[in-house]
Amino acid sequence: MVSLPVPIGLHLAGPKGQNPPLLAVQSETNHVINNLQVNNLTTKSSKGSTSTGANMTGVKLRKTIIEQSRRAGVGHIGSALSVADIVSCLYGKVINAKTPRDPERDRFVLSKGHAALALYAAFAERGWITEEQLNTYCGDGSQLGVHPEHCLPGVDFATGSLGQGLSFGTGAALAAKRQKSDRRVFVLLSDAECNEGSVWEAIMFAAQHKLNNLFAILDLNGQQAFGYTKDVLNLSPMDERWKAFGWDVHVVDGHDEEAMAAIIEKNSNVGDKPHVLIAKTTFGKGVSYMESQIKWHYSPLNEAEYELAMTELERQS
Ligand SMILES: Cc1ncc(C[n+]2csc(CCOP(=O)(O)OP(=O)(O)O)c2C)c(N)n1
Ligand SMILES: [Mg+2]
Question: I need a labelling partner for 86 at 20 to 30 A (CA). Which of 66, 174, 191, 284 fits?
């Protein structure tokens, strides 16, 4: 099953006259109230325990991405490999969350929802989903779709229609402020999403509200489905653009987990601006024949490609 491209510009519209970040505030507030009324879900990993994720690595996530995309016969592999170190950094080192339904946990929005496998791989490492659940990926009735859906505990917002995640995250960050909570909100978005005006609306809204509990992490891999961003819509210099819109900007190697974690810890709830990590990444990172190759946006793996990818990743373990 391969997801078909949705035409650029297709957005889920909120009720007329309502602003997406404010809709997210409303949803987050209800979410917290609802979750205060139910018992926290305790999930068990295949090893029978939950985990802090301290042993998580990008390479471990990459192996799961390759295994599951081969098993399910789906694409978006290069996109997930691109963000494996970012997701591993967040779920292994940064995100405070006792359980996936802990109402006070830090929030994470995978705005580039087509990289869902990286998220599911991290959930599996944390013990938030079992090996058995992981093996339902893209199957009928599974909670693990090709894009994340909020039926899965730990996922607050369904994503995949690009350009919306920063609005969701901005609303969630404003909700945390209004509730006098120190919880933080992380939004992982792609460079192609920055082609969309809705992203820049959320950028302005977050700066206006001085949301210093909000971190955008921008996966600057220079690719977008069938093209390179410099040819489709060149947004360079990206850091200067975010700065001009009032954000605290950090340019970082998106494969250096320690560096990213250090920036986040130092800047959480600090200053009077939202923060962005412009994370320079390589599309398809870790599998030599996929790196920076357009083909690996949509293409699934054949058996020989799968074997070669796993051999390379074993060597990096
Ligand atoms: C609103 C919207 N338009 C189009 C698509 C189809 N689509 C899926 S991924 C993608 C672009 C991928 O580039 P990028 O977002 O930079 O992610 P990367 O491939 O680098 O991970 C597009 C256009 C979509 N999911 N949502
Ligand atoms: Mg990209």
Answer: 174
